[in-house]
């Protein structure tokens, strides 16, 4: 009854969240709460460590801080509506709030894609041109590239999001996720959306897809360079410097490509697949990236071990 009352004149969208699982939503809340906790605390920890440790004020760690910032933004973008559904059973969202949320989600996704591209260029220079690395990759250049990355996605998205307000929306405005995505909202418009579809496709192709192709090319050159190294030990040591970044690339782009394919060509794919792909794409990378970089980055591991040792000392002193 509630869904049928969401008419063309209603300013609200209805976020379904997890259809058919209403009775166990309080159990689903637990893994989502843990994912948010790990993602937000982990990325905040990396940002604080890099900010407070002068030894980490280097290009590589500036890039890592950009990645942590985008992951943090991605987590915070979905937090209000997802937790609202779990805690308050609040499924309604005003259209303007929906616009803001989808703008933030897609903007931070584009930012993360661009940051991963810059990081792949960093690894390419470090392995293929080590003698020129310190000359080309400077802190100022990394910061400038980071700022360019921050503005590239949002600027391209502004027309896409603003055009949504010009469309009429007939019938029930029901979204199948617990957050707003452009590719889902556009399907609810009862008018010709060809321009929006083509523009959205062009933005994705010339940003995220182009980033993915360039990352793949950089790793092709890296693998070729590593294969030419004299000993197997040198090959392993060189490739180990890329493992953290390669993991970050895979956990971000694999779900992203899968979600894009499902939304554009999977009209007959079960709704559960749509929900799974969207949730993996938005929740898993922000949660896993700080864990991966904390394990694989020596300097961050050193900070963690130092904090643990200080905690042990304080515990002994209190006892």
Q: Using DSSP, what is the number of strands?
A: 3
Give me the CATH superfamily. Rhodopsin 7-helix transmembrane proteins
Order of helices and strands: EHHEHHHEHHHHHH
Q: What is the mean pLDDT?
A: 85
* Alpha carbon gap, first and last residue: 61 Å
Which sheet architecture does the biggest sheet show?
3 strands, mixed
In DSSP terms, counting alpha (H) and pi (I) runs of 4 or more, how many helices? 11
Structure description:
By secondary structure, this protein is mainly α. It has one domain (about 10-300): Rhodopsin 7-helix transmembrane proteins (Rhopdopsin 7-helix transmembrane proteins, Up-down Bundle), CATH 1.20.1070.10. About 75% of the residues lie in helices and about 5% in strands. The chain is built from eleven helices and three strands, in the order βααβαααβαααααα. It has helices spanning about 25-50, 60-90, 95-130, 130-135, 140-160, 180-185, 195-225, 230-240, 245-265, 270-295, 300-319; strands at about 10-15, 90-95, 175. It has a three-stranded mixed β-sheet with strand order 2-1-3. α1 (about 25-50) runs parallel beside α10, α2 packs antiparallel against α3 and α2 runs parallel beside α5 (about 140-160). It starts with 11 loop residues before the first strand and ends with a helix. The relative contact order is 0.13. Residues about 1-10 have low confidence and may be disordered. Putative odorant or sperm cell receptor. This is Olfactory receptor. It holds the Pfam family 7tm_4. GO terms for molecular function: G protein-coupled receptor activity; olfactory receptor activity.
